[in-house]
Amino acid sequence: MPADAALVQAKWPQDECSLVFEDVCVRYLPHLPRALDGFSVSLKDREKDGLVGRTGSGKSTVMGTLFRLMELESGRILFGGVDIAGVGIGHLRRQITIVPQDPILFSGELRKNLDPLGVRTDAEVWAALKGCSLCVLVESLEGGLSAKVAEGGINFSVGERSVLCLARALLRESRVLCLDEATANVDPTNDKRIQEVLSQGLQDCFVLTIAHRLHTVLTCDRILVLERGYLAQSGPPASLLAQPGIFKELANQAGIYNVISDAPLPMQAEGEEVKSI
């Protein structure tokens, strides 16, 4: 697209940029209520945000609008000052990466899974693996980076697949990373790996995390609480826990009463069903 060529020349998005949702309304079908109803929020550069809300509140729809999986009924989304509706899909999606709740690897070499386009050097791939504490795991595989991945990645655990998908996201160097609670069904070891990457290895991008377990977003810069498609609450976790509202209700249900606690929070066993919030 001609517009994309201009964006590339302007080095969009710039190092310092914002992500703004302006009165965004989305309706999946004409006879259904709005999935997003006047959703508005302005996110600062490199901000880490947790999306929280009960089932059906609109959390996944927010991420869907970023990828332009659906047309907006009204409103707009500005990324780096540019309305993403005018950006080519391919160019836009190169700026955004998602690590889904059910991570999938495709059959073939492990390296191909991590760097599908083959644009990274082996040193860069190993650096991403080191950042996710995966070097020992990969070195133990027959063939290392050339190790074979079974269809769907079933020769790796759910936790290992999640962290490998996160390593792939790091290699893409996208400006926005979306996590659909990538730790929802992850074992404690890999959960720790992911949390360390989120807190230390993603300093140059926005991170939006859909929370199915509240403790995974307690270190975010800001919590965005959705209710029936609109922004019901917004603020740092400690502030929201200190005031009446949906977030405090959900936290109380989860047994969370303050952001910093000496008591360890219960971990989710791999394969155990997660109750959506």
TrEMBL record:
The keyword Lipid biosynthesis does not apply. Pfam families: ABC_tran. It is found in: Vacuole membrane. Keywords: ATP-binding, Membrane, Nucleotide-binding, Repeat, Transmembrane, Transmembrane helix, Transport. CDD domains: ABCC_MRP_domain2 (cd03244). It is a multi-pass membrane protein. Residues 19-253 form the ABC transporter domain. It comes from the Eukaryota. GO terms for molecular function: ATP binding; ATP hydrolysis activity; ATPase-coupled transmembrane transporter activity. InterPro entries: AAA+_ATPase, ABC_transporter-like_ATP-bd, ABC_transporter-like_CS, ABC_transporter_C-like, P-loop_NTPase. One of its GO terms (cellular component) is vacuolar membrane. This is ABC transporter domain-containing protein.
